[in-house]
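Quick one, probably user error.
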C-alpha cells in the first residue's frame, strides 16, 4: 500500500497557492494538506483544512511544522516576483534564495520531496525569444530572474549531490480569477479583466505588441501535480522544465475581450515593466516536458477569456 502523503504548501495565500491548495485537498483530503503563509489567506480560502502562520525565512519554525505534520512533500511558493523585486532587490534575493535553502536542507535531512517554481524570467536579452529551448544561453536581467536561475542550479546540485527529489517548472505568466496576482510583470493579463468588468477600460503598462508566454491557472496547477506524481526516472530535468500553453500580446488579448465586451477600451502606457517583458521569451519550447512526463495544455486564449469574464462579474 502507498504511504499517505502529508503535504505542506508554503506561500499558500498567493495567486498559485490559493488554487493549488484547493486542488491538492480535493485529491488527497483536506487534513493531509497544510496551508501556510506569512499573510493570512484572503476571503477565508483554504479554511477547510489546517493552516499555519509561517515565515519561510525562519528555518526552525519550518522544521517544527514539518515535524508536527510529518510532512512528506513540500510546495515552496513564497517569493517576491519580478516587478516588486526590482524595488526591493536585497529583500527579494534574501526571500527567494534563503527560503529555498531552508527547504533544500530540511528536505535533504528528512527525505522530503520538494516542488519549487522557476519562471520565464530566467531568460534574458541574449536568449532566443522564439521557441526558447530547454537549455539555451541564459542572461536574466532582473534580480528575480537571477534568483530563479541560481535557484535552478541549487536544485540541480542538491539532486545530484544529495539525492533530494526536487522538481521544478518554469511557469509562464499565469492568469487566474480566484486571487490577485502578487507583483509580476505578466499581471496585466489578470488586471485587465477586473478593469474591463468594473470600468470597461484599462491602461496597459506593456506595449500592445509585447508577446509573452501565458497559461491559465487550472493548467498550471495540473502541470504541478502531474510533475510531482511523475515516476522518478521520468523526471530527467532537475534544474527546471520549460512548460508552455499559449502566447499572446496585449492587443490580441484586447481583441478577444472585445468579442464579449465590444465597448471595452484599452490604452497603452509602457513603464519600466516593458523592459523586463522585452527581455523574456515570446514563446517556449516545452518538448522535454511533453515527452518526459506527457505534459499538454488545455486552455487556449478564447477559453481563458470566456472563463475569466464569466467568473469576474
Ligand atoms: P504571490 O506573490 O501571489 O504569492 C506568494 C506568497 O508568498 C504570498 O501569499 C506571500 O504572502 C507569501 N510569502 C511572502 N513572504 C513569505 C515568507 N517570508 N514566508 C512565507 N510566505 C511568504 O506569488 P505567486 O504568483 O503565487 O507565485 C508563487 C511562486 O510561483 C513564486 O515562486 C513565483 O516566483 C512563481 N511564479 C509565479 C508566476 C505567476 O505568474 N504567478 C510565474 C512564474 C513563477
Ligand atoms: N509572472 C511572473 C512575473 O511576471 C513571471 O515569473 O514576475
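Nope, works fine. Designed sequence:
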Amino acid at each position: 500500500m502507498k504511504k499517505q502523503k502529508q503535504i505542506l504548501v508554503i506561500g499558500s495565500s498567493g495567486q498559485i497557492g490559493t488554487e493549488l491548495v484547493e486542488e491538492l485537498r480535493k485529491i488527497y483530503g483536506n487534513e493531509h494538506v497544510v496551508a501556510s503563509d506569512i499573510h493570512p489567506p484572503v476571503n477565508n480560502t483554504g479554511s477547510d483544512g489546517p493552516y499555519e502562520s509561517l515565515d519561510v525565512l525562519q528555518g526552525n519554525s519550518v522544521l517544527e511544522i514539518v515535524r508536527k505534520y510529518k510532512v512528506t512533500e513540500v510546495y515552496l511558493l513564497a517569493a517576491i516576483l519580478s516587478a516588486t523585486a526590482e524595488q526591493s532587490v536585497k529583500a527579494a534575493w534574501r526571500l527567494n534564495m534563503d527560503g529555498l535553502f531552508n527547504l533544500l536542507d530540511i528536505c535533504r535531512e528528512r527525505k522530503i520531496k520538494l516542488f519549487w517554481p522557476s519562471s520565464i524570467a530566467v531568460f534574458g536579452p541574449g536568449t532566443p525569444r522564439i521557441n526558447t529551448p530547454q537549455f539555451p544561453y541564459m542572461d536574466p536581467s532582473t534580480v528575480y530572474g537571477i534568483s530563479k536561475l541560481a535557484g535552478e542550479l541549487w536544485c540541480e546540485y542538491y539532486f545530484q549531490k544529495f539525492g533530494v527529489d526536487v522538481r521544478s517548472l518554469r511557469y509562464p505568466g499565469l492568469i487566474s480569477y480566484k486571487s490577485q496576482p502578487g507583483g509580476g510583470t505578466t499581471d496585466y493579463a489578470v488586471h485587465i479583466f477586473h478593469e474591463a468588468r468594473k470600468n470597461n477600460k484599462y491602461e496597459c503598462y506593456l506595449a500592445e505588441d509585447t508577446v509573452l508566454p501565458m497559461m491559465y491557472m487550472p493548467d498550471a496547477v495540473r502541470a504541478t501535480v502531474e510533475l510531482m506524481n511523475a515516476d522518478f526516472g521520468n523526471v530527467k530535468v532537475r534544474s527546471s522544465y520549460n512548460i508552455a500553453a499559449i502566447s499572446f500580446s496585449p492587443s490580441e488579448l484586447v481583441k478577444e475581450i472585445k468579442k464579449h465586451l465590444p465597448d471595452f477600451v484599452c490604452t497603452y502606457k509602457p513603464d519600466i515593466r516593458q523592459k523586463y517583458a522585452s527581455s523574456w521569451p515570446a514563446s517556449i519550447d516545452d518538448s522535454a516536458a511533453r515527452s518526459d512526463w506527457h505534459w499538454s495544455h488545455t486552455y487556449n486564449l478564447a477559453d481563458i477569456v470566456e472563463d475569466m469574464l464569466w467568473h469576474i462579474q
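Residues 89-110 form the longest helix (22 residues).
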